[in-house]
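Reminder: ligand-aware prediction takes two inputs, not one.
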Amino acid sequence: MSLTDIEFFKGFIDMCDKGFKLGWHERNGGNLSYRMTDEDVKAAKDYFNTPSEWFEIGTTVKLLAGEFFCVTGSGKYFMNVKSNPFDSLGIIEIDENGEKYRIHAGFVNGGKPTSELPSHLMNHEVKKHLTEGKYRVIYHAHTTNIIALTFVLPLTDEVFTRELWEMATECPVVFPDGVGVVEWMVPGGRDIAVATSKLMEKYDLAIWAHHGMFAAGPDFDTTFGLMHTAEKSAEILVKVLSMGMGKRQTISPDNFRDLAADFNVKLPEKFLYEKED
Ligand code: 2HA
Ligand code: ZN
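Here is what comes back for the chain with Dihydroxyacetone:
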């Protein structure tokens, strides 16, 4: 037996591999974190090493004190997660003040958690609070078509949400709250983490202009599916725009209202604005 026989660890590796195969993780691009359940910790504990010293997170996440996370490593490649998980991934524990972490497993060659750890943990903190502990996964990917769109569309929640919704009927059902947008910022630090976690109070998806996307969800499949759905929609929009003729027809605000009624979802009216031709 090893960590790789435990369900959450298998699911984590599998998700990294799926993202890599879709082309979202060039080199060391992207990162993933999972907030472990008590059962996960119990099962994984047998394979823990002597813990490392405590390191600063770079922000405070009081609500996550004492929690354990599985996270991808800084500078590690998603391409290698499946073949070399213990080099690419690690399990960390947050201290009692929510300010430091220590490593219990993985990162066998002296690695450390993703450079985006502050964003991951601040997003986890928001989602843990708002979903009463239901959400456990935060995923950052360099989704090609979403990134391309951040060069041509206005960087507003309203425009990105509406355009993505229009490109695939399932989108308003999959992300009825919409998607938030952070204008370009230096990655890896607390400022971008604060901006992203603010958006996570309203949405499960946040776009980082000219960089990628963050998705949040209760489990691996739902979170990956959300990223995949938004990126697929962005791909359709890139194709539509590339044809150079504009849209001849599309899904109208009233169509969305009908869909919302039938599918029992609430679509905020701020995304159903009238457009000028
Ligand atoms: O881990 O994706 O945003 C590399 C990145 C930084
Ligand atoms: Zn990135």
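The pocket of zinc ion (ligand 2) is lined by residues 29-30, 140, 142, 187, 211-212 (CB under 6 Å). The longest helix spans residues 220-242. We will return to this case in the review session.
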